[in-house]
Amino acid sequence: MLEYYNNKLKIESCELQEIAVKYGTPCYVYSLQQLRSNYLAYANALQNHGHRQQIFYAIKANSNLTILRILQQLGAGFDCVSGGEITRALQAGSIPEKIMFSGVGKTHAEIKMAIELGIHSINIESAEELIRVHAIAKELNLTANIAFRVNPNITIDSHPYISTGSHNNKFGIEYNAAFELYKHATTLSNLNICGITCHIGSQITSLEPFMQALDQILQLTQQLTEYNINLSFIDIGGGLGINYHNETPPTIAAYVNAIISKLKHCKLTPHIEPGRSIVGNAGVLLTKVEYVKTTANNNFAVVDAAMNDLMRPVLYDSYHEIMPAIIKPQASIKKYNIVGPVCESGDFLAHSRDLALAAGDLLILKDCGAYGSSMSSNYNTRPRGAEILVSGDKTYVIRDRETIAQLMQNEQNIDVRSILV
Ligand SMILES: *Cc1c(COP(=O)(O)O)cnc(C)c1O
C-alpha cells in the first residue's frame, strides 16, 4: 500500500506530498484497498468454514462514518461502547440486529435506546447492570437480548492499559460468578439470554491467550447447557495485534482458523469483534516538519502533528514507523526525536529515529488507522486535521479539518461583568 516511486512515497497511486499540498497537514490518510483486504481476510476465513459473516467491527478503533459505511457495505456488524457509537452505526446504514453494545458503564438512557432498537445483544458486565437492563426492559414492556461478558482471567503480554481479561481489571463478570448470574437471568421475565462474550485485551500477538480464553468460555458454556441454558452465539471479542515494529502476530486467517477449530464441536455461532486489525495498517498520519532544533544532547524535529492528533505514543509508549514523503539521497542522516507543538513533555511521536530532516519536509507515521483519529482531542485549542480516503488515484475528504470557530461554538458569550459584580 505504501511504496516509493522515484523517491516519492505513494499510498495506492497517490503521492503523499500531493495530498499534503491539496489538503494540508496534519491529516490522516487511509487506503481503501488495505481496509477492504483486512475485512475480507476475516470474511473469507469465516466463509471457508461455512460460517456466515459474524464480524462486529469495534467502532472505537476508528469511528469515521465513511469507514463505517464501507465496512457496512462489505457486510460488517458493529460493536459499540456508547450510545454515540450506536448512533454512528445506524447512521452508517447498519440494522439494529447487527449491533452489539459492550462496556462497563452503560447509562439508563443508552440501555433504553438499545432495548427500543432491539439490537443483537447488550453485553452485560455486572450484576447491577443485569438488574438495570431487566428493569428498563420491563418498564418498556419489551424483551432485551442479552449476553454476559465473562472475564476469563487471562494475563496477556500487552501494555497494561490495553489488557482487559485478567481479574485485576474492571471488565466483565468474574469467571466464578458467571454461572450463578446466568441462572439468575433465567428467572427474569423480560430478557432473552442469547450468548456469551469475552474480550481479553488489544494488540495481542500470539494465539495462545485467545485459545486459553476460549477453553474457559467453552467450559462455562458446557455447564450452562447441562443446566438447560442454551445460547446461540459465542463471541471471542477483538484484540488481534498488528505489526507496528518487529511484532509477529498471526495472520487474520490463522487466527480465524484457530478459533473455528476450537469451536468445531460447539453448536454456537462464532462472533468476532476486531477493531485494530481491520483499520490499523490502513491509515497513516501525514505531518510536516516545522522546525529542526538541536540541543546539547538531542536533535528535535518539531512537527505540526501532536499528542492531541495521535495519543498512542504517550499513552501506550507505542512505536510508529516513520517514513519521509520524499527521499533526499544526498542528505545526512541523524537521530531525531519527533515532537509536537503542545506544551507537554509527553508530546512526542517518536524517539531516536534515523532521518535526514529539514523544515518543510513531510513525514508519515505508519499504522495510525486504529486508535489514532478516534482518540484525538482539541487540547491546546488545536483543530483536528482532515481525514482523507484514497482509492487508486482518487482522494476523498471523509472528514473536514476543524475550524477554530467550531471549537468555541459551545461556549456561550456570557457577559462576565454581570457575574463579577
Ligand atoms: C476495543 C474492543 C474491541 C476491539 O479490540 P481491538 O484490539 O481493536 O481488535 C472488541 N471488543 C470490545 C468489547 C472492545 O472493547
Describe the structure.
- This protein is an alpha/beta fold and 421 residues long.
- It folds into two domains: 2-29 and 280-408, Lyase, Ornithine Decarboxylase, Chain A, domain 1 (Beta Barrel); 102-273, TIM Barrel (Alpha-Beta Barrel), CATH 3.20.20.10.
- It has helices spanning 16-23, 32-48, 65-74, 83-91, 108-117, 127-140, 175-185, 208-226, 252-262, 276-279, 312-316, 404-408, 416-420; strands at residues 2-5, 8-11, 14-15, 27-31, 56-58, 77-80, 99-101, 121-124, 144-151, 173-174, 191-197, 233-235, 269-271, 283-294, 299-303, 322-324, 334-339, 348-355, 362-365, 386-391, 394-399.
- The protein is globular and about 70 Å long.
- It binds pyridoxal-5'-phosphate (PLP).
- Choose one word for the global shape: globular
**Largest beta sheet, briefly?**
9 strands, mixed
The separation of the N and C termini measures 62 Å
**Total number of beta strands:** 21
What is Rg? 23 Å
At the first level of CATH, what is the class of the largest domain? Alpha Beta
Number of helices: 13
Helix content: 25-40%
User: What's the average pLDDT?
Assistant: 95
CATH topology of the largest domain: TIM Barrel
Q: Which parts are unreliable, with pLDDT below 50 for 5 consecutive residues or more?
A: none
Structural class, judged by helices and strands? alpha/beta
Q: Which small compounds were modeled alongside the protein?
A: pyridoxal-5'-phosphate
Number of domains: 2
The fourth-level CATH homologous superfamily of the largest domain is Alanine racemase
